[in-house]
């Protein structure tokens, strides 16, 4: 029997204290993506198309510290860059950051966890992201002095943008729609890597005062529509960045390959002798 009463009173309120909104996410397994698109009538005719780039070291040092730096090209709309840090204590975030229109303190929630995060987005001039991705401009050109200062003060991390690699792009389709069975507008994002693998995420955003009912309600809605949620807690970000970071790992040099090829016959000969004794 599920525990209730004094043992659970105020649990969600404590977990979300200080945040302004909650975003509840669930990942749709690959084999259910086509059915989900069909059920909600999501097509390339009613989507918002984006190209997303991440920036990190080949070893994903920033991600390991809870920092995400990304840029988005929104086809037919404004482009932007974002720096995000989690987990955070809202009480330790200075009021100065809250004056920016695209600064947010939110709770990122899944079926198994709730984490408070702070993100800071700024517009990027058209053409800049393409030039950075093509190596014609430095990564630093995508981020403002205010975003750098945010990372220095909130994440206590000074970023050397010259050390960061371009990870991407991912092609993303985004939809925002309503379903009579769900009290909150739903956002769906379908990401595709260059290897053809895809991942879909559905989410809702709700005011922080609705956090408890939104978590339970959205998960119940997903169960009702038959969504087989991905319990691995794999996020879009790690799924995307991990793939592109692996591509940056140095391939074996021709010299090492040649040396290994020369040693192979000797190893086989030793194995045969050992087997004969």
Report the average pLDDT across residues.
Answer: 86
The end-to-end distance, rounded to whole angstroms, is 65 Å
Rg from Cα: 23 Å
Please provide the count of β strands: 9
Structure annotation, total helices: 8
State the secondary-structure class: alpha+beta
Classified by CATH, the class is Mainly Beta
Query: By CATH's scheme, which homologous superfamily applies?
Result: Hypothetical Protein Pfu-838710-001
Overall description:
- There is one protein chain.
- The chain has 277 residues and is α+β, with helices and mostly antiparallel strands.
- It is 30% helix and 29% strand.
- It has helices spanning 11-16, 33-40, 61-64, 128-133, 145-154, 211-224, 236-248, 254-276, and strands at residues 21-28, 48-56, 67-74, 79-85, 103-109, 114-124, 165-177, 186-192, 198-207.
- A 9-stranded mixed beta barrel has the order 1-5-6-4-3-2-7-8-9, surrounded by 4 helices.
- Residues 5-9 and 273-277 have low confidence and may be disordered.
Short structural description:
With 277 residues, this protein is an alpha+beta fold. It has one domain (5-276): Hypothetical Protein Pfu-838710-001.
List the helices and strands and how they pair.
Elements: H1 11-16, E1 21-28, H2 33-40, E2 48-56, H3 61-64, E3 67-74, E4 79-85, E5 103-109, E6 114-124, H4 128-133, H5 145-154, E7 165-177, E8 186-192, E9 198-207, H6 211-224, H7 236-248, H8 254-276
Parallel strand pairs: 1-5
Antiparallel strand pairs: 1-9, 2-3, 2-7, 3-4, 4-6, 5-6, 7-8, 8-9
Name some characteristics of this structure.
single chain, 277 residues, alpha+beta, Hypothetical Protein Pfu-838710-001, 29% strand, globular
